[in-house]
Here is the input.
Amino acid sequence: MSPEQILVTKADGSTEPFSEEKLRESLKRAGAHGAVIDAVVKHIEGELVQKLSTSHIYNHAFSVLRNLEKPIAARYSLRRALIGFGPSGFPFEKFLAELFKAEGYTALTGQMVKGACVEHEIDVVAYNENELIMVESKFHNTPGEKSDLKVALYVKARFDDLIEQTFNYGKPRPLDEGWLVTNTKFSSKAIEYGMCTGLKMIGWNYPDKGNLQEMIEKNKLHPITCLTTLAVTEKEDLLDNGLVLCKSVRDTEALKALGFKEDKVREIREEAQLLCELT
Here is the structure.
């Protein structure tokens, strides 16, 4: 049976034919080239069985990349790294604020604002001289989980309560845009509703231009959860101490203050530096 005849099971439970082209493109986007891509593809095609999950394909590809090119493996893991902001999702809000700062905004998290009817806690408020944006983030702990129509309806109702109010961020002004941002994907009904009502929605790969993946790569702001030199518990410790960006762990003193040994600090810093240079 040829690789193209193998069906793979996606995170949401649906199936699709295995695509070598898609695999090569994802590896290329992560920064892999030539022999490295060929090595990963050869390994994956040797593992293919009917209904193999995309998660297993990712794990195999990541393992090969980690042995060959650690920084590329870290970048390849970006989508899974966003899941690593769990379980609370609060670090994801801080990460979104950093993305807005990279775009030239002042960004604040956990802001209480008064609507026409009730008070709301807004995950991220971003503003500059010309624009005020409020963001509701929807964090999911598993790749196959989507933000659905109920989420879009709820968020749109919140922004409708805020749209005609005046807020003092930088200067007295109205709300220009309300955004719904998720670390995974949206359901088709949520997208349909957002397009109909004008709700701005940003997901991992939605919209085609200006999605979350593109925002991260454009601003070179990979999360610390990308780093292959950190164990899960070590990532959690760093997140608990407010360190969400890969580039923030290049500060050796901050790592030492959290109890990391000299050799480990050097290893983490070197990978972070290579990843930042790669992107």
Remarks:
- The chain has three domains: 3-68, 90-219, 223-278.
- Residues 3-68 form one domain.
- The first helix runs from residue 20 to 29.
